Each structure stands twice: as structure tokens, then as C-alpha cells.
Amino acid sequence: MHRIHTTTSQSDHLVQIPPPKEGGSERLYQGIAVAPGIAEGIVFKYLPNEQAIPVREISEAEVDNEMKRFEEARCATQSEILDIKKRMAQSIGVTDASLFDAHLLLLEDPILLKEVHQSLCKELLNIEHIFHSIVKRSCTHFNQIKNAYLRERAIDIEDVSRRLLHHLLGKPKQRVYVPNRHHIIVSHSLTPSDAAMLHDDPVVAFATEKGSKTSHTAIIARALGIPAVVGLHNIISEVSDGEAVLLDGYHGVLIVNPSSETLARYQGMKLEQETIEKNLKELRQTASKTRDGRAIILSANSELPEEMGSILANGAEGIGLYRTEFLYLNRSTPPEEEELYKIFCTIAERMKPYNAIIRTLDSGADKALGFVEYPKEENPFLGCRGIRFCLQHKDFFKVQLRAILRAAVAGNLRMMYPMISGVEELREANAVLEEAKQELRQRGVPFQEELEVGIMIEVPSAAMTADLLAREVKFFSIGTNDLIQYLLSIDRGNESVAYLYNPAHAAVIRTLKKIIDSAHDAGIWVGLCGELAGDLLFTPLLVGLGIDELSVSAPMVPRIKKAIQSLDIPACQELITQTLHSESATENHARCVALAESRYGFLL
Ligand code: PEP
Ligand code: MG
Q1: What is the DSSP string of 445-465?
Q2: Quick check: CB of 323 below 6 Å from ligand 1?
Q3: Using a 6 Å cutoff on CB, does residue 303 contact ligand 1?
Q4: What is the pLDDT of residues 197-253, one digit of tens each?
Q5: How far does residue 271's CA lie from ligand 1's centre (Å)?
Q6: Which residue has the least CA distance to atom 4 on ligand 1?
């Protein structure tokens, strides 16, 4: 069993940079695409120097004065952040600007303030040194956590403390200095407030060693429309100031010293993308329908409440997957029912008249919770993750279920369970749901009796029994990230077997067909929310299989819509006929690419 309330961590999966290409000066680095767009410029390394922090002994009589200085610096930092927040709210909207609330909360953290006072009294050293040491310890702790989302919190702490130390030391905070607009910032990491300053000093793009698509900085980059690639390990030592560089925020690629052919290729792509972007506004209002009129609901995946604005702005028809585990990740205790209820209510209200599918907690494996002590597992991806964890901790699970049931009164929420492996497991989850309803009835709290419940199909046993499962739920959502990993036995985080990942493998196509046909035979709808849904090369395949809904990252919504609008059902069905019985996954892949290229090559 697991103990809840203690700390552990599990491995995460960042993309490794391939070695530089041999035989030429062009070097290509693969990272994680977090904000779309193509930018060309020269490298500007942003390396904020750690400040020299003076150390001096103080007498007991000086303690009060040191605390007073600390309070003044804290207040000055608060007003500085409020000011940035206000400016950001005016330019990118209130929701995204509210990211700075986390910084304001840090400044008021009673545990931190108590620790500062206690250390000051005990160590009798100047307040700058005391504060700096505490922050360093805390960042070291966060940086050691292998969970990418939690590690991002170290960046928030560093950012706030740098600001406060500048006030204590009487220096203004260093700005991100960008000599002219054609520089691409290369940095170890960028804090949200660094990114906010990029808004004042526009840059063409940024690339960082650290980061993930859920980092606050990535959210701001998307909101500001700055192309960005993160997770480029050691990139600072690989590039020099002034080197020519090209950043592809669509594919997460940074190319140093691009050849004239590469530049020409990207120049063409950039012009085409600019034309597409220009038409994007109109595209947002058009229907997600094939040329011959088949409607496919196009919704967005979401990990954080801050993304609602971008989801709507990109024209998504609701949320197809809300990954609730991100509400549990950056904390030392689990969220309570009331807190979850409020967040789910906000989602329900913002998404009206569309639906939002809340996925129940999918923790474990690469998404370990900070307050759970996990027993060591040899194969965590085959271990106690997803619904299995929740069914082993039913009281804990019911907190979330009650919050979802109650919030569903506020709008069109649906709910789905992750990692369901068969009918009995589904029934057990539904029995817990019934208990949660009963508890709400006893409390006399209003809730949505008719909440629509679906499941993710991401385990091969669920795919094989899709016909049985379809009788018991309102919808399926196919999680191809896990389904393909289990079906083809490819660890989704292991780059050495990544070449085997091919959604056009006949095994994948047959499995998807079985799931979709089973759903339709039972009269329910079926969506797909794995990364495959946002892969333009495979849109023809998914349309041909008869998928009803695709849920993709918000920035991909307009492009996938364009792809859908460029296709017709007979051509996509013909592709399925050709691929279902093909012995070659490579040929199948080529067939998908050929159809995609012939219909919307300009998007690829
Ligand atoms: C999936 O497995 O495809 C999925 C959407 O879930 P996650 O990526 O959160 O495991
Ligand atoms: Mg999954």
C-alpha cells in the first residue's frame, strides 16, 4: 500500500538532444515544442549571474532592524509583482497574468517567514545571507525531484527570491537585455517574470535547457505568441553568442548555423505559416467538418486552469481531456473537495455551452504525487497507476468524485476514468461513484445525478473487450500515448526504442478500428485524446476510422481543423482499406503522409 502525505519522486521523460550532425557546420538539436512558430536570428545567451551575497555577523540588538529591512524588501517585491501582473493582464488577459499569484503567495508563505525569523535569531548573520541560504536549500530540494512539473516550482522560487534580494541589496532587478529584435534567447531557464519582460522587449523566440510544456513560462510563451522550445539539455555550452540560429516551435527543433537550403526551406514554411496564421481568425469560426460534411468535434487537452483562455481563443469546442493530476502535483498535501469543486466549476462555466471532460486522477509512473510514498515498483508503467491507485484509496478518490459531481451542476461536465483494464474494474469505479453520490445526498448537497461517465481506452485488454465496456459507459476516449506503448511494447519515454513507434502499424490501426466500431455498434461516441490526435500526418487515418472527436493541445486546434476541412471520407476510408492488411508499417506511414501532403501539405 501507499502512504499518503510523504514525499517521493519518479522519473520523467525529457527528449534527449541528438549529437551534432557530422560533416557540416549545421547542427540540429531536438527539444520539446511548447509554443508554435518559426524564428530566425542570432544567439543571445541570457545567463543571469548569481548575485554576490555579502555575509556579516550581527548582534542580537540588530535582529529587529534586519527583520524590518526584510519586510520593506518584501513589500517592495509585492508591489513590483503586482505591477507586472497588471501590465500582463492588460496585454495577455487576466487568466494568464494570474500566474503571478503563485509568486505573491510565496512572498506570504508563513512557513518561509517563520524560517527566516528563526534562522536570523539563531545564526545572527545578515538577512540577505539568511534568506539566500533558505531559498537555495528549498530550490535544491525541488531540483532533485524528478517530476518535471514540481521542478518547475524551483524556477518560481528562484524568480521571487532574486527579486527580493535585489531590493535588499538596493539594486533593481536585471532585465532580460535584448540588444535588438533579431536575437533568440538561449537560457538555462526563463522565469515567468523574465518571460513577461520579453513582452516589453519583444524577442523573436527563446530556447531553454529546462522546462516542460506545463511550465508557467511555456504558458506565457503561448499566450504572448513567442515561439519556444524547451528541454534542450546543455544547449548553453553547445552554442555561442552571435551564432546564426533557427528555431522551429512547431517541431521543437533548434538549428544552429542553418545551411542555405535549410534557411530556404524554413523561409518557405514560414511564409506559408504566416498566411495560415492570417487566416486563423476566420478558421476559428468555421465548423470542424470534412469537405463532404462529416462533423468531427475538435476539443482541447488541458493540464492547468490557466489554459482556458487559450483553449477558447483557438476555437476549441470544449475540453476533451482535463488531466486533473496536475492539480495534485505541486503540493505537499492533496487538494480538498472545496478547492477542487471551485476549479471544476470555473472550468464548467468557462466552457459553456461546450462540454469539458474531467479525467479522474491519473497518478503514478511518470506522474508521482509529492505527498504519496510509493512502494518501489520494477515496472511503474505496469504498476499502480491511474484508476488502480484510486481504487486502492477509495476515500481519497471520493473527494475528487464528489467535487466533480457537484461542479457538474454549473455546466456541461463529463467524467472519465483512466487506465480501465476491464468491465469489473469499471464497475468497481462506478460503485465508488455511487458511494460518493450517496454521501452528497446525505449531506443534502446538490449534484448532477446524470453525470455522463466514460472511460479512456489505453490498455490493450480494454481495447479487446471494447464491445463489453461500451455497454456500460456513455463514451470512450482513446489514449494512444499509453495504448501504443502497451500494444507495441515501446516504453513511451525510452528514446532508444522510439523508432518503433508507428501509429500506422497494422496492429494499431486494427485496434483503433475495433474500439471505434465497438463504440458505434453500442451507440456511443468515441474520441481520441492522445498526442496522435494532434499529429497532422495521421488525421486522414483517424477520420477514415470514423473517430467522432479529436482532443489536441490548444495551439494545434486551428491546424487540425484545417486538415479535417481538407479531407473527404471516401479517400480516408480507402487509406484504411489499404493499411489494415498491409505487412509494412513503413509503407502504411508513407500512405498516410502521401494523403496528408496531397490535401494540406502546406501545414506539414
Ligand atoms: C494517453 O495515454 O494517450 C493519454 C492521453 O493519457 P496520458 O498521456 O495522460 O497518459
Ligand atoms: Mg494515458
Answers
A1: ----TT-EEEEEE-SHHHHHT
A2: yes
A3: no
A4: 665 555 789 999 887 665 666 766 775 678 999 888 889 888 887 889 999 998 899
A5: 33
A6: 479
Instruction: Report d(CA 570, CA 300) in Å as an integer.
Output: 27
Quick: pLDDT tens for 286-335: 999 999 999 999 999 887 787 888 899 889 999 999 999 888 875 678 99
Q: What is the pLDDT of residue 13?
A: 27
pLDDT tens track for 115-158: 999 999 999 999 998 998 888 888 777 767 766 666 667 777 87
How far is Cα 529 from Cα 479, in angstroms, rounded to an integer? Answer: 6
Ligand 1 atom with the smallest distance to the CA of 362 is: 9
380: cell is 511503474
Residue 458 CB less than 6 A away from ligand 1? yes
Q: Count of CB atoms within 10 A of residue 493's CB?
A: 16
Question: Nearest residue CA, atom 6 of ligand 1?
Answer: 479
Ligand whose nearest atom lies closest to the CA of 214: 1
pTM for the whole thing? 0.69
Cis peptide before 172 (omega within 30 of 0): no
Report which residue type is found at 554. A
Cell numbers describing residue 61: 540588538
For residues 546 and 573, what is the distance between their CA atoms, to the nearest angstrom?
Answer: 9
Q: Among the atoms of ligand 1, which is closest to the Cα of residue 478?
A: 3
Q: Which ligand is nearest to the CA of 480?
A: 1
CA distance 234 to 474: 47
CA-based max dimension of the chain: 84
Check: CB of residue 156 under 8 Å from CB of residue 174. Answer: no
Give the nearest ligand 1 atom to 321 CA: 5
Q: What are phi and psi of 30, to 5 degrees?
A: -100, 125
Distance CA 229, CA 235 (A): 11
CA distance 324 to 157: 24
Distance 482 CA to ligand 2 centre (A): 5
Nearest CA owner, ligand 1 atom 1: 479
Q: Which three cell numbers, joined as nine digits, stand for 71?
A: 519586510
- Catalytic sites, residue numbers: 216, 529
Separation of alpha carbons 420 and 456, rounded Å:
7
Closest CA to 455 of 543, 515, 517: 515
Question: What residues does the ion ligand 2 have nearby, CB within 5 Å?
Answer: 458, 479, 482
Which residues have CB under 8 Å from 253's CB, separation 6+? 28, 29, 30, 31, 33, 229, 247
pLDDT number for residue 93 = 66
Count how many residues are written for the chain. Answer: 604
**If you take atom 3 of ligand 1, which residue's CA is the nearest one?**
479
CA of 154 to the centre of ligand 2 (A): 26
Nearest one of 86, 66, 77, 74 to 130, comparing CA atoms: 66
Query: Is the minimum distance from the CB of 530 to ligand 1 under 6 angstroms?
Result: yes
The DSSP letter of residue 136 is: H
Cβ(15)–Cβ(494) below 8 Å: no
Q: List, for the chain, all residue ranges whose pLDDT scores fall below the cut of 70.
A: 1-24, 48-52, 91-98, 143, 146-152, 171-181, 192-193, 195-202, 212-217, 219-220, 223-224, 280-281, 330-331, 493-496
Contacts of 408 (CB under 8 A, 6+ apart): 344, 348, 415, 447, 448, 451
Q: Whose CA is nearest to atom 8 of ligand 1?
A: 481
Separation CA 427–CA 473 (nearest Å):
10
